[in-house]
Amino acid sequence: MKYLLFALSFILVLTGCSSKKYFEPEDTEGDLKVQTESIPYDIKSMNRVGATLENGQVITKDGLSEFKLPENFDFLNVSEDGKVIATNNKDKILIGEEELTIGDVVIAASLKDDRLALIYSNNTIELIDMVNNKTLFKEYQPISLANDTRVTNPHFMGNLVLFPTLNGKVIIVSKASNEAVKNISVDPDGKFNNIIFLDVIQSLQTLIVATPNKIVSISPKEILAKDYELRDILVNKEDVFIATIDGQIIKLSPYLEEVSKSKYKYSKIHSLAYTNSLYAIESQGYIINISDDFTSKKVYDFDFDNEERLIVLGNKVYNNKIITLP
């Protein structure tokens, strides 16, 4: 009897594996012509704006830096004046060459002028005056036990500081009064509802915010929201591009109207990138290139290591090598 049960279990495992579906384009345009260069070490950790290599070197939007972090520190952000901000995931942060003892685990940080904005692993947010070493604002948000790993940094916008929390909110703090002036619930009911994306369309003074399951557009006139299960999201000028779990690539207006979309059955998009057109990196070794108006759609073979971490910054893809997209 036990042999029969073992055989049935084995068949069920094989059936489960064989039923898994993968993106298989009928035809491709061949290899995408790109520039490549070696990367000295594997990526140890990363967020939306940069990464840390195993040897402590840092990747930012400006490329691979010669600057090396101390042992056990991970990159978080770059300050307005170009200083790398990092955390030891314990009780300290690093700003440039200066180590500061904070006393708790910092997972996101931004620094502009003399104001340091912090988000802690326990969902506390804090604004610090660096000149006087004084806390200007601190608020204890409810602890969020289940989070998507794509945590985003606070954002300075004029006289405001935007804190994206781990429980699906954006807390807006005035630098003039050091008080919270607005509390926006982006996705209060989601299981994984931390903010994974926050950007501002400056020309429209419109804030685009996303959790893993929702995207929200916040303008002076209105707040608009739509439900999407997101793989990735990026903003280019006044266009919002998203890739969804069900294989859709969608172009949205700043007001979240669907302008264009394409569906790639069974695709699993790792990341979106934008140069002169949109790119979507697919897990099975493909890259999808879509023109700005979605009239031209091409699939290329794309060589990268699916087992290694991958981050896109500007027109560069960092994986087991550095790839510059055309």
UniProtKB/TrEMBL annotation:
InterPro entries named in the record: WD40_repeat_dom_sf
UniProt superkingdom: Bacteria
Protein name per its UniProtKB record: Uncharacterized protein
